[in-house]
Fold this protein.
Amino acid sequence: MIPKLLKIGVVHFAGCSGCQLMLLNCEAELAILAQRVDCVDASMITSATCEETPFDLLLVEGSITSPSEQQHLQKLRLRCRHLVAVGACALTGGINRFDAPTRETACTHVYGPVADQIETFSPQPVANFVAVDACIPGCPPEHSDFLDFFGALSCGVWPTQRDAPVCMECRTRELRCLLEEDHLPCLGPITIGGCAARCPALGIPCEGCRGEVSEANRDELCHLMAKTHLSKSELKRRIQRFTGGENV
Amino acid sequence: MKDTHLPCFRIKPDFYDALAHHLAADFEFWASLVGADGLCRLQLVASPPENTSSGLPGIPFKKLLLPPAEPLWSWDGKTFQSPDPQPRRAVFGVALCDLQALWYLDQVFAEDPLYQERRQHLLIVGGPCQPADQCRCHPDESPLAGDLFQTHDHIWSLSNRGHAVLKELAKWLGATVDRPLPKPLQVPKPRADIREPLFRASTGSAIWQQSSQSCLACGVCSAVCPTCYCYDMIDHTDLDGKSTRQRVWDNCFFSTHAKVAGGHDFRPDRAARLRFRFEHKKFGFGPLRGRPSCVGCGRCLKACPVDIDLDQIAEQLNAGEA
Ligand code: SF4
Ligand code: SF4
Ligand code: SF4
Ligand code: SF4
């Protein structure tokens, strides 16, 4: 059984903190959320920190980029009952993975001459180091992702994990298909829905920020997107942006 | 319903004004309109359109009977609540293929109280259509449902309800005439069918693999299909503890569609899923087995980003190419 008042924490690794901000931005629901959860440690939400107490639930945002972060994460895992990976960085490495082909240059650029004394590695998803109990996708996640999540949790279950693509929501909203009609490089067919086709509704092709559906047909989408103005390598980078580097 | 002897009346000038006036007290009006972006949508309109042949709406009227996400009940910890009562809607200009699809859905959901309630609240007015390139209907093949069918100078009653409406408007009706419903002229190419034994024999055929290779599993083909009706049940709980169970459009191309507890998947790949969709569209299931559920509206063909064409597959199987 999940206790009534969940002791939660939000921990931040390499990322922009947008996920945490998005949670904080659920303004209309914060008061009621505060009756469900006791936020004991979260850099943007409370100045309290909690060094020892166990968490019922730990939300992890950001990707892991150094041995010290890795150790910190592993210690936290021992302190929490449930660990939830939140957002593209935590789930796949996110846009941080774009360091991949030019990592050394990037490090020298950021850290200067001491770059080789700082121990870092290419940004990794949280699940590469610890067991993950649930995922909240998005870059950043929608308000509804957080609210559905805490809603489900308040009855003691995890929310239903979606695997239907953005296209389904796009078509049920009766939006114009940007891929079919306008030959724009829309990633809707291979991206997990849940955003109600936020971008296509504004005439912007889906960027894939919610990550890939489980059986994404990348080859065919690349083939289709060859009709757009993008070059092969641009297409590849577009698909890789939120799904983690080299697996395309 | 056989349409050979449907009661048909010539109409007098102002009939449509009188009809609109008669219905306005009880009904919202819905009709298909082409938007500035070129898409045709079935939408709420202020008054029934004068010209009814605006083409097929991309998402068919099933959205009014089986909305994409429909609450079944909610529970606030103390009491169950039924969904809000449905508005009464008069839908104008529904093409023949969609009237056939309505008949099909009516059979499938004959025992579904929510569907039936919504259905009772709909008054369906058919209208002539202009066949488009992808149209593949068989206008004479299957029964149709609906209440009225209108052209600029005649009106047919298709149901008791339609009949009752016309009775109220007798003043604006002229002579009864013996006239069949206007059928779409020159449908470019009717739907291709296939015999079931041939289909059965195709189980291991490479054709399913080949044809499904390019499928993105985007689900669009069944979202737009007027006779696709699969749904999933999704529970949602608010922070204040109110739970709602919804039925949400599902789709046999989705990875979860045939997955069962324990992780087994009855249709583990796109080839099996395409074959399943083909089977449902060409042969139907259950008591309707043997009757295609595809009414040939051509929507899936038009909407599929990779042009997967069930008829082409049927033709290939028929030609022994598989
Ligand atoms: S615009 Fe994009 S998300 Fe929408 S249907 Fe087309 S491909 Fe899918
Ligand atoms: S299968 Fe395609 S052509 Fe047949 S009814 Fe459905 S959308 Fe129309
Ligand atoms: S099984 Fe597939 S083809 Fe049949 S209704 Fe469901 S989605 Fe449509
Ligand atoms: S519309 Fe085409 S690509 Fe999308 S699921 Fe249907 S057959 Fe596959």
Remarks:
- Residues 6-154 of chain A form a domain with the Rossmann fold fold (CATH 3.40.50.700).
